[in-house]
Amino acid sequence: MCGSRLLMPTRIAIAAATISLAMPARCRSDDAASTAFFESRIRPVLVRHCYECHSHAVAKPKGGLSLDSRDAIRAGGESGPAVVPGDVANSLLIGAIRHESFEMPPKKKLPESVIADFVKWIEIGAPDPRDVPPDPNAVASELWEAQFQERLNWWSLQPVIRSEVPAVKDSRWSPQAIDRFILSKLEEHQLRPATNADKRTLIRRLSFALTGLPPTRQQLAEFLADESASAYEALVDRLLDSPHFGERWARHWMDVVRYTDTYGYEWDIPAKGAWRYRDYLIRAFNEDVPFDQLVREQIAGDLLESPRLNATDQINESLIGPMFFQMGENRHGDSSEFNGIHQEMLDNKIDAFSKAFQAMTIACARCHDHKLDAISQREYYALAGSFMSSRWVTNTIDLPQRNAEVIQSLKAIKGGLRIALRVRWRAESAKWARESFSPILSAASRVESQGEKDSRPLPLKHPLYAWSRITAETPPNVDIASVWSAVAKEYADASEGRTTENKAHFKLIADFRQGIPDGWSVDGVGLREIVRSGDFMVALEGDSAVQSILPGGLFTNSLSPRLNGSLRAPYLNTFTHGHISFECCGGDFAAQRTVYDNAFLTEKQVYLKHAMPTWELLSTVPAMRDRRIFIEFATKTSNPNFPPRVGLGGTTTAEQESDPRSWFGITRVVTHDAPFTPQDELRRFASLLAGDPPETLEDAAARYTAWFASAVEAWQNDSASPDDVELLNWLLDNKVLDNAIGQDDGSPIARLVAEYRRTEKRLKTPCTVNGMADIDEGYDYHLNVRGDYDHLGDAVPRGFVRAVTGSQRAFASSRSGRRELAEFVASPENPLTARVFVNRVWHWIFGTGIVSTPSDFGHLGDLPSHPELLDYLATQFVDDAWSMKKLIRDIVLTETFRQAGTVDQLALDVDPKNRLLHHAPLRRLEAEAIRDAILAVSGRLDPQLFGPPIDPARANEDPQKRLFSGPLDGNGKRSIYTKITIMEPPRLLALFNQPEPKIPTGQRDVTNTPAQSLALLNDPFVEQQAEHWAKRLIEVGHRNPEDRINSMSEAALGRSATDEELHRWSVMVDDLTTLHDVAPGEQMGSVAVWKDVAHTIFNLKEFLYTR
Amino acid sequence: MAFLARRPGHDGLERLSYALYESATFNCEWYIGTMHFPSKHLSTPDSQSRTRREFLRRASSGFGLLAFAGLTAHQSVAVGERQPHFAAKAKHVIFCFMDGGPSHVDTFDYKPMLAKHQGEMIGSEAVSKRSQSNASRVWLGSPWEFRQRGQSGLWVSDLLPRAADLADELCVIRSLVGEQPLHGQQALLLHTGRVTGRAPSLGSWTSYGLGTENDSLPGYVLLNNDWIPNGGYENFGSAFLPATHAATLLRAKGTPVDNIVPVDSLAIQRRKLDLLREQDWQFAALSADEQAIEAAIANYETAFRMQSEIPHVADISRETEATRKLYGVDSENEYQRYYSLQCLRARRLVEAGVRFVEITCPLTHANNSPWDQHGNLKQYHEENAMITDQAVAALIEDLKRRGLLDETIVVWAGEMGRTPHTPAISPTCGRDHHVNGYSIYLAGGGFRGGTAFGETDEFGNSVVENPLMIHDVHATILHQLGLDHETLTFRFGGRDVSLTDVHGRIVREILA
Fold this sequence. Notes:
By secondary structure, chain A is α+β, with helices and mostly antiparallel strands.
């Protein structure tokens, strides 16, 4: 679908076609020639050079002059008529374009030939077919079209063409293509590259570039010992193979995607699954997943035909990708109350998407067409529609095999339990037949003991209602048969009346026992199968075997409350009634959520708090009809808004937040206008009351017994109806049916329950990540006139920017179109994707990109320093199947990368910014690398990859905003695992320019402030690590201070100390020994002394920079 | 410097700056890296002169421009002090941020109609998107008495008795209109001029525009009270301005500033710094890009001085008993004690030359922000007033007594006001979010005391006269500091960005 990207000539043809379409059809044939002259020579100039200020496309044309219709141009503006047909001298336009009276267009004068055309045109009577009063929108689009065609000439929108490797004078410097590009530019400026860096400098530079860590002693020794020609190449490959490579490079990409662990704003709600996305990136870089695949996954990983599956972790990798969209700040309100909330989140997505993948500033076109680039305002809203068409939800990434074995076991045990229960209950119901009073009496006595009888009369729905009526008065005064008959009639009438009413008022739109209706969607391990009526939940604690029997439908907890689920209803505006009601149950913070306009941190969230399905009414407000609102039921782990903000359903404790157990069930859904919910139709009593009435209590008891027994029997035959289930649960609750398991009673039931409980604990918590889901038909977003969300224009068909797709075509998909969007972006024909990424890689390796503004390839961005090299790298990258490692390898293997950091005067004068790369740039380590290097050198680094984020140490915790404090050393884990909270970023890392996580960052700032010096001098982390290192050094033992200093220098700087340095440091060691009042003999064992030495080393610029 | 860029031509300095910002690329490292060099505090004469030589040599190249611009951004260097755009009335700002939104109709906007119509439904014509409102809510009278105060007769309620005593110093604006009735957005708007944030704070712009008077102290200090307002640290950030203009956070309790207490004795730290300097110069000499290293070296000397300077300013032990009493630093209430301490420190910081000081409120109870009384209006507004009123009034008085009030603008403002109505009258009812006309005050710094500007309708529900946006207040504050809000810009993302964007007018009516 992307192969169709049109090249320039075709584009021009389109422009011409558009213009000719705009031509009025009613020109008279006799002046066809003069009209043609106007159309070909005059109109395009007016549109391109004048309309921006002088047309109805602008609210106030400058000088009151519009040039967009015959009448307007002849009437002129404040200074008089612009055009007087046949009278060049009195046509002000001519003086203006000659720059005699006015200077128009300002800045650049039109070519003489064009001015001559205008003169000629006026001379022949200024034929002008534009006799219709101009429509501002038409003029605006004509003007935009002209600007657009001109802007399409911008360098970054041109097709990428493989560049010829240039010839160089010095062909001996390097045979590599990349080097030839660099050298040829240097030679153009009469410059030479620097000499090669020495091996120690090089390994340090390379190690930080590829892994973000200093070389280990072993890596250093290995490299130094290898004197072969391939030593460096081998080193590069070793480092590319290091698992730490992925950590380093994932972090680079995390800048671009505005990575965050929390959503900031007022409550800093955790960004669900953010860290799984971080781990996904680490794996992707380590496994060298092709970049085009990563692009597809991040844009539409939920829609891929064959997603990338991770057999080790048993998760769907591709499904993690769309977490990309769910980074950045999210607000907990919604646009129904405060318009603007979802629009900001949407804007952030458009901004991140367009900058990350295309280095385009599409977000600049929110209020108007882009001021400089080929991006129209409509195109902004075309993307907005795509992103809003998908629902912003939490997805489960577990593959079926994850937990499959445990689930299989649980099902098997449950099967066994069902058989054992069948045996026990069969015996029991057989016993009932023998002693006909026993079940009913035992039930009745329980009702009495529970005080239910006090609330006489029992309600109709109560199983013992009939019994209570016939036992209300003492025999023989009671005519049992007639009371029974009256009761039967009462039930029959109620049942009929209620059934009729239900039918009249309610429309059943979902019965989940029958399946999932169209438009509804389910997600989660707990909802993979529909629960049959009569299925049951094993009690996971206590002295019962069965917790309850289920009426069928969707129950996340039919096996275990550890399994997750979410059920999402169609948008409310697809329903015709005013209300919707759900027959549902749930607990442990399972929520019913009403999500407005994709504001997934919704304020409309209530926790379900009952054990068995009950009708719950949800009003829909008619005024909300024009909004996109859906209802979602979600367990904790599937709820993007859990843990919620303080005040939304009460506070949650840390324990509640981390316990995955949470559950809900839903059987049916109805819509209605009546302000009440469906009534119990009482059908289950029909079989109790059928036939002739009983004459005696014994008879009545026998009826009850038979009624109970038939429910038990139906269950045993696996054909229990929901009515049977209701009765069975009542029997269980009232201990009429024996459900008890004694302590180690050795019965098969007890044994199976124990086994079930043991097995259930082995379930792994399902993995969930925020992302996108395409559930509904696509939705075209309305243009916000001048960016004002209260002022809607027309709906814009979903699509991508023409400057990239080459045609005006909207997405073909009837849904969001993200899948198509992913292909447009991941296409080799896309002029930007490969260019932008190779440039980023160059930027990450050298500190400055070939384009120094990596996230802006537009007019406000920089121009490429080496455009041919950029295109060479881009084509090579695509040819190498978008291999990121190959690209990085090619770049670090160049002589360019291997230069020394020295420079000659000429180079400094000619190219002070080193844009031509005549030497290796000096670079301060990134925040993460500084902290990681300290951990690595001190010996505290825990090399373990992956896992949940670790809170940074904080001076002041703030539990309301979930700003907790973690261990000072972050458990020794690398900085990529430090939790990033938008409210309060990790202090030490932020100080060294870890980017603010709300918006994409293409290039980090590198500031140099006294606060950084204070941190390195006084921060407790730095001090702690200095002490850790000192203790380790003392443990190792060295012969003398010089040996130790040397070894410290090797570890921290990758080189041994010079004699001068050894002297300098030794003097300091002696001074410190004195200052700490340590006896000279104790010097080598003094933690205080060596801690100070270590601390000083952490402050060395040589430690903090690579050269 | 960038604010000069729009007026090129007078002298070489401006032309250089212009050239700098014309260049499409901007390397942050160089700009900031050179800010602190060559410092007069560098103790290596040889290296210093070498650096100066290098500097002059490079002044003829592209590097030189950047270095030069960086130098001039820093006041202590020989090139000359930063010049404001025009004569300044004030040199400092103290911003008392009433986080959460104090109720305007319970403080400075007297509306007797509310009590008269208490309990009556407000009706649909009183509903607004700039207010948490619906037609069935009811008017709520103020629980506090209003009186006319001082010579000026300014209306102030009994909620703020100490501020009321100073009515003749206060310039009250009663007609502020915000954008969205939400804390995060409004707090960011109040601080950065944008509901989305991602832009420098007013304090950062002030520091950037005026430079510092004391290069051992930051230009913008945040006196915090253990609570981060909504909008987070971004409220106080420098965004794209150089990092030195971000607020430095000074805590009320414990160590006032992160990493300010030396982990070493002075002698040991000095020994380390001496060795570091030797090693670092050696490293700098090896590099083609030594300026970054040189700047980092200079930073260590600044840091060294800050270690003594900041605790010195934060320490109030030498203040007189009368002063302590005035502020209430020995109050029985812990919150008040710390808030008062911060107010007293604010005065000390201003005396020491800090340009912009902000004081935030403590959160005393489980809530979204201190003044955010959706319920229990009476109880918690009174508590907040008790904690802050005395100290803020003391600050104004103290500044006046020391002759500093004329050159210091004191701003008292929340990010919003509160609805004049409530869902239902009850003893624990409160007021909700309201940005459709609310009140703030300014004092000192050339603002006209004893004035109330702008008016809301008789229910305090919407503005009927002289509506102002926060941009107007920003423009006016900058104006008093001698800065033109339209030309105080910084080139970012290819544009000259200002605090007020395309908005803002100088409200001359409220100036003395």
